[in-house]
Amino acid sequence: MLGELLLEVHSEEIPARMQQRAAEDLQRLVTDLLKKSGLHFDKTESYVTPRRLALVVRGLPRMQDAVREEKKGPRVGSPDQAVQGFLRGAGLSSLDQCEKRDTGKGEFWFVVVEKPGEATKDALKRLIPEALAALPWPKSMRWADQPMRWVRPLHSIICLFEGETVPFVFGHLTAGDSTCGHRFQAPARFAVRDANDYLRRLRVAYVEPDFAVRRAAVLKDAAFAAGNEDLVLVDDPGLADEVTGLVEQPVVLLGRIPQDFMSVPREVLTTTMRAHQKYFALNTKDGDLAPRFVIVANTMTDDGGKQVIAGNERVLNARLSDAKFFWDQDRKVTLESRLPALKDIVFHARLGTVAQKVERVERLAYEIAGALHADAKQARRAAKLAKADLVSGLVGEFPELQGIMGRYYALNDGEPAAVADAIAQHYAPQGPNDRCPTAPVSVAVALADKIDTLAGFFAIDEKPTGSKDPFALRRAALGVIRLILENKLALPLKPLFRSALSLQIVQVESDRSPTEELMQFFVDRLKVHLREQGVRHDLVTAVFAKGNDDDLLRILAKVEALRGFLTEGEGANLLVAYRRANNIVRAEMKKTPDLKLGEIDGQLISQDEERVLVAALGDLGREVSGKTQDEADFRHYLATLARLRAPVDAFFDRVTVNADVTAVRRNRLSLLSAVAGSMDRIADFSQIEG
User: Fold this and answer.
1) Which of 222, 419, 537, 616 is 20 to 30 Å from 474 by CA-CA measure?
2) CA 682 to chain centre
């Protein structure tokens, strides 16, 4: 017979951002302990609400399987002290319960111990408290005089197996069979029989335990309410997750924004609603922000939510009044007039103030804009004003609007649209889902800001280590990579790194080369970026290791060319031949460390296959140019390289490399080394996997 485990931990409200991870951790911890104890099961279900974590494990056996364990003891004839120790450890009284076995290394005592399986209910009494104690909350607390920690004070625990209580103790609580429903609408406690009864009775008590069901209800009801007003719900997956974690039974209501506030920029209104009040924004059918918002309440009221709506409108109106005040005040002065205040903001203790960073970014943006054939004066102007909104009232209240508000203020000051847009976009892209700027001036300023940050922290040797990246340098590097690749910019990086480093206020130690460190850092980030798109990282390594190229677009083009070459028959087979040649040469060099390989001696060539291969290598050297940095040269070299396949195959088929005559053997090894060297000329083929 198979049984079912039901576990619920009921507490005060769990922070929304911690709920789903906690449910996953509880499921993992419990199931891992069950498996280690030999208790296998059919399936699991996890549930989470603001006030409870629940887990259902179905298909558990009633008993653990019996364990049969064989123990090897001391050698026959060992001292009595060793024998007695073995017997005690095995729980035996005499050697009559053991048997002798010849292991081929002598006779030893062996015993087979069979342990009956433990009742699952008894095992759960040990395992569940262990899992609960191990739950890794990001933040936890103690309360009253309780010794254990939990994210919030605990109220009760349900633990049932096959409908019977598993009465373990955790802190001040003993697990039982009862819980309660919605805090306000169904606070009375009730007992449950099993998982299905638990889920049914919770739903009757105004609690939807399934996060996915609750989230779908929030979005469906919100979209329906918006549609009734001929409006459209603004898509916001992150807010949907957060709101779902705040309610046990979602109740959707619509509030109204006074028309006076609709002159405030859209971003200010939506940020106020989203960040502070957890409201969904609504659009008109034309895509404009509507003067309405969606509230997701946790309680149904007798008046249809009128008081709830009125209360939320009062709170929002107060916040919007503050926002409108800052908006009106901020526009009374120009962005440029705010620049002196940036001298009072420290960017980093060793890298100076924000004002000093702005000066560096100005000069770098001017240089980059020239390379991109963008308007260099506009790029410099945008860079100069890009950080000025940091000292505005609205950005002080809503830091997440930095850059965005700078655009509004720049337009208010009469700055060109390209300058204003560059101010808004100079932080972008800030993540993998953030849109990349495409306008040339915006791209130049965004690149300059990120490259200055990277150069500064590499100059003071504050590079990311392991999982630690306190200054978000990996994100900055990925932003630069996306800006270059998505805009298809042929932009060598090393000159920009050198320029950015020369502008820093710190001196770099002479034995370090931040330029090379930065380039390697970018190549590593490029591998990560391309791997997420399905591009093989080993091909990036192979190309970069040999060419030391600093043009990311060209590196990517070479990687694509190499990938195409290796998927074709000639390239794939030539890679096999390369490895074979390398392995033979390496093995011989290992056996004879003083073996010197050099020029191929034509006088020592005796077979046609050798002559053909030497001729093919000569043709290869003459046909391709001395440069392989350009993508066209790279592709041409690969195409020419493919012609080596037939002569290399023939050489391996008919020529004995390890000839008896030492000089001939050395000459043939030199020929194989030349084959590998011809391939390694444009990429390090030894780095290619598979």
Assistant:
1) 419
2) 32
Q: How far apart are CA 376 and CA 310, in angstroms?
A: 52
What CA–CA distance (Å, rounded) separates 506 from 427? 24
- Beta carbons of 190 and 181 less than 8 angstroms apart: yes
CB-count exposure of residue 496 (10 Å: 0-12, 13-18, 19+): buried
Q: How far apart are CA 358 and CA 340, in angstroms?
A: 11
CATH T-level assignment (fold) for domain 563-687: Isoleucyl-tRNA Synthetase; Domain 1 (1.10.730)
Q: Say what the pLDDT of residue 378 is.
A: 98
* CA atoms of 550 and 498, how far apart (whole Å): 12
CA nearest to 262, candidates 231, 242, 292: 292
What's the number of CA atoms in the CB half-sphere (13 Å) around residue 74?
15
The SS3 assignment for 55 reads: strand
CA distance 650 to 413: 75
How is the chain split into domains, by residue range? 2-63+119-204, 67-115, 211-330, 346-534, 563-687
The DSSP element (H or E) to which 123 belongs, if any, is helix 120-134
pTM, rounded to two decimals: 0.80
Distance CA 111, CA 100 (A): 9
Give CATH for domain 2-63+119-204. 3.30.70
Beta-strand pair 99-102/107-115: antiparallel
> Please, which residues have CB within 8 angstroms of residue 639's CB and are 6 or more apart in sequence?
none
Q: 545, 507, 501: which is closest to 523 by C-alpha?
A: 545
Can you read off the two tokens belonging to residue 126? 């040990």
Arithmetic mean of pLDDT, 527-551: 84
Whether residue 687 contacts residue 613, with contact meaning beta carbons closer than 8 Å, is answered with no
Q: How far apart are CA 308 and CA 311, in angstroms?
A: 5
Residue 685 CB coordination number (10 Å)? 20
Alpha-carbon span 476 to 529, nearest angstrom? 13
pLDDT level of residue 14 (50, 70, 90 thresholds): very high
Which tokens belong to 546? 């040999």
> Tokens for 445?
């300023």
Cα separation, 478 vs 463, whole angstroms: 15
pLDDT for position 547 = 64
Count the neighbouring beta carbons within 10 Å of the beta carbon of residue 283: 17
561-589 per-position pLDDT tens digit: 888 888 877 888 888 888 988 888 888 88
318-364 per-position pLDDT tens digit:
999 999 999 999 999 999 999 999 999 999 999 999 999 999 999 99
pLDDT-wise least confident of 2-11, 69-78, 626-635: 626-635
Q: How many CB atoms lie under 10 A from the CB of residue 486? A: 14
The two tokens of residue 464 are 């990311």
Sole residue written with tokens 């759960």: 124
What the block records as the tokens of 424 is 């808004």
CA dihedral 349→350→353→357, nearest 10 degrees, is: -140
Among 221, 331, 224, 326, residue whose Cα is nearest residue 271: 326
The bridge status of strand 52-61 relative to strand 2-11 is antiparallel
Residue 370 has pLDDT above 90, yes or no: yes
Q: How high is the pLDDT of residue 626? A: 57
